[in-house]
Amino acid sequence: MSTSGSAPKRIIVGVGGGIAAYKVCSVIRHFTERGHHVRVIPTASALNFIGAATFEALSGNPVDTGVFADVPSVQHVRLGQEADLVIIAPATADLMSRSASGRADDLLTATLLTARCPVIFVPAMHTEMWEHPATVANVATLRERGNIVIEPASGRLTGTDTGAGRLPEPEEISALGDLVLERSDAIPRDLEGVRVLVTAGGTREPLDPVRFLGNRSSGKQGYALARLAAQRGADVTLISGAGVHLPPPPAVALQHAGTAAELEAAVNAAAPEHDVVIMAAAVADFRPTTFVDAKIKKGPTEPSLIELTRNPDILAGLVRRRADGSLPQAKIIVGFAAETGDASGDVLFHARAKLARKGCDLLVVNAVGDGKAFEMDSNAGWLLSADGSEAAIEHGSKSLMSSRILDAITALLGDGACST
Ligand code: CTP
């Protein structure tokens, strides 16, 4: 068990009385496996869905619901005071209402009153409840007080209805919890009203019906950016390329594109509606010139060479269209560069040249090779700006890197930056 180099933290997982309570077991396991001390505090009604024994076994700690449990240690005050992070999932309409009005009538709400650490509410309820003015007001109150209230996912709810209010997948909840442990101020609501387009993953350029030229991009960085931008309040469209096996981020409009040409068409269609475009996708520079309709057979002779044709540079195309006035909305265009050093220069040398060549406002630079960046959960790099400024991004999760990138974007938006 390891906390990836950081000290173990005290994490409280508060569980509200909703059917999604079963999903929280994976979140508890995520944090215990990283060596953190997890204490589960369910409401009494949560125990209708999951038994206390399950939470005790997963966390290795006792489970109480009332304020009169373990009175000698003044538990209803101590647990909140000692916590480094509180995650409430599922946060039901009732639980958020009780927390917003400062109630302390069970161990969980009492803990919320004494906690001074970051608190993340992960709502789950039917769409009507989520959209009800009472819940909207409670969410606003909780956010004003500095709590993080996650945007719920959309999709199948209990019963036959679908809509906003579904608990985000456990991986999403765990990733946001990890991010807040890394950086407690990483999820401000500073992108409300900003429309952000993100591309993620790789492209696949077909050669015949069963083969393609592809790359190793997993989409993790682009998905982390889309997820965090949405949680910071942005209206996010994510165009997902090939090779991505990740759950759709909550509150994000998701599209798919397989080839560079499909990605280009999707980006060009969506870009006019967005203020910020982030090209995190690893776009193939070349595609097979000819698509062979039938599977290519080995045959008795040596294989023939595959002729390649250059793909359009989507990022450079966006910058050109903005310069000629046909993308007036696009205030910020962000590119990514995965670089290795070589005999002609180091990673930053090549990255600076790429920023100048592409003409975007920000370039996120990763050093790749030796197993770095691709398919990994962590990353490090640099942020180069068109104004010549350069900032190193410390090693951390792809969510942490996303938070640094979004900070730079909000700073540019605040400056009214636009390279038209
Ligand atoms: N990109 C793009 N269209 C392409 C290739 C790349 O929009 N056909 C974007 C990527 O999404 C990324 C940036 O350009 O944001 C840099 O990608 P990279 O592959 O590093 O750039 P290249 O111009 O292909 O440079 P290199 O010659 O180093 O491969």
Task: Write the topology of this structure.
Layout: E1 10-15, H1 24-33, E2 37-42, H2 52-59, H3 75-82, E3 85-91, H4 93-100, H5 107-114, E4 119-123, H6 127-131, H7 133-144, E5 148-149, E6 153-156, E7 162-166, H8 170-182, E8 195-200, E9 205-208, E10 211-213, H9 220-231, E11 235-240, E12 252-256, H10 260-270, E13 276-279, E14 286-288, E15 308-310, H11 314-323, E16 332-339, H12 347-358, E17 362-367, E18 378-385, E19 390-397, H13 398-414
Helix pairs in contact: 1-2, 1-8, 3-5, 4-7, 9-13
How much of the sequence lies in strands comes to 15-25%
Largest sheet, spatial ordering of strands: 12-11-8-13-16-17-18-19
The 3D shape can be described as elongated
Number of strands: 19
How much helix, percentage-wise, in residues? 25-40%
Structure description:
This protein is α/β, with parallel strands linked by helices. It has 13 helices and 19 strands. The longest helix is centred in the C-terminal third of the chain and has 17 residues, at 398-414. The structure holds cytidine-5'-triphosphate.
Give a short overview.
The protein has 420 residues and is an alpha/beta fold.
List the keywords.
420 residues; alpha/beta; Rossmann fold; 5-stranded parallel sheet; binds cytidine-5'-triphosphate
